[in-house]
Amino acid sequence: MTGVPLLDVSEVSKQFGGLSALDGVNMSLDTGKLHAIIGPNGAGKTTFFNVLTGTLSVSGGRIKFLGDDITDDAVHQISHRGLARTLQIKSVFGNMTVRENLWIAAQSRDGIFSIFKNWKKCIRAQEKADSICEQLGLQALADQPAANLSYGDVALLEIGLALATEPKLLLLDEPICGMGPAETEQTVAKIQEISKHIDIIIIEHDIEVVFKIADLVTVMANGKVLAQGKPQEIAANADVRTAYLGDDDDD
Amino acid sequence: MNVATINRAGTLLFVLFTLTAPWVLPLVVDSFWVDIYSEILIWSLLAASVNLLFGYVGLLSFGQALFFGMGMYGVAVGIAKFDLSFWPAFAFGVALATGMAVIAGALAVRLTWHYFAIITVVFSLIFYFTALSWKPVTGGDDGLPFSVPPIIALGGFELSITNPNVQYFFIVTMVGACYFLMHRVINSPLGRAFVTVRENDTRAALIGLNVYLIRLSAFVLAGFVAGVAGALFAVFGRYASASYMFYHVSGEAVVWAIIGGVGTLFGPIVGTGLLIVLREELSSVWDHYLLLVGVAVIVTVIFAPRGLAGVYNLIVQRFASNSTRKTEED
Q: Whole-prediction pTM value?
């Protein structure tokens, strides 16, 4: 072991009034694996992403990313540490072109508080935007306003925005939800490609996809980690079956 | 002809008109229209200030008159009470407005939408009533008149705004400088960050943008621009009055910006110009001309959300694409 884990979550909880969305989550992840989180609706998966990225503050517990405590950091600070995510409800900058969308995400690494430079002359970010367009196959749409894109392309652009910030860890929240079979296949291939260079945690409901691409699967239920292991171990786990299908008393 | 050429020609025409107005306008209309045109240029900065917030970072402020008033009182108090000369008084007014924007902004930009709109109104009302009741300094209802010191006095050479042409070109230079500054900012990385925050603040934070600081920057810049407008208006009218800090004034600027077209640099000038001319022409004939303005706002918001500037851009684009098609056919 190299020592410092990629992500070290200890006893993280999140309460909304009386409701416990996260109830003492512990998780330690190492780098170099494509990691999936599954679980029934309301298990706390998206809430977990929200506390990781600072969108929600924790009610208790600590989060360490590459050894640094990020629990109390603001959203934009966490982004600068190298943690990027996509949202379950896809959202981009609609009235800006695809290239501008990617440009501002890339430019955020170089600083945006400069007022005497023309944004078109920020060459590094421009080139980064172009290369991501190419990587995701969005070149043909580069000059289209993002609001004109199809659902699948918006999902790709979301991943592009995250990539443009040059993350060390990428959190994907149901990236293929709502896609047709062809789009799903393409996107899954791209995610696998990206995972060769960047660590990924993916929340996904499509179990088939999860078992196909994940190296490690964590199952969440009722705000807790229920089980963690290789896909085949998870598939055989009795607790997981119960969580998904309910108790089967007749058996 | 493409869009850029047409726009460049339009801008050139506007600049030429502005530079020759003191001689050209009196040929066509009464010479007091030169003063009205100066006034339009000054007020357009207040509309531009609303536009920076609403059109670029998506914050609707009904309190920009506060910063206008600060700029105005800074100049008037500086000259009448502290005996400052021209430039220090002018700088004092603008600094006061900008400083106020830093303080008000630090609190206000934590909020968005109607919460933000309400807090801007509250801020401007607090200082409106302060100015109204603090008679020894502000003159309250009566305002604070003063006589303007010369812009430059070097030995025998003196440049003073008592000369109408000096006054006109002083205003044009200052207004022009503000538009140049806004143009630079809007095309800078910060300007793109403004638009990014307007489009989707949640997403903007997730890609690492400090949304709070970006909104605050826009707010301070808007306060600065409104402050310059107020300082100019004090010099132009030779007095300051609390009535210019009332939220009616802020509201008028919002109307000018919306009718002219938010999110474009030129829109606020067009909107301000049109509505001030309308006011000059109609208010003496018809007491309820504001009804017409109200209808115009509703029509604009429903049918031309990008305002007159948006309509203009659409026409130019149609025209440009038509002429390209023709050249291709030829």
A: 0.90
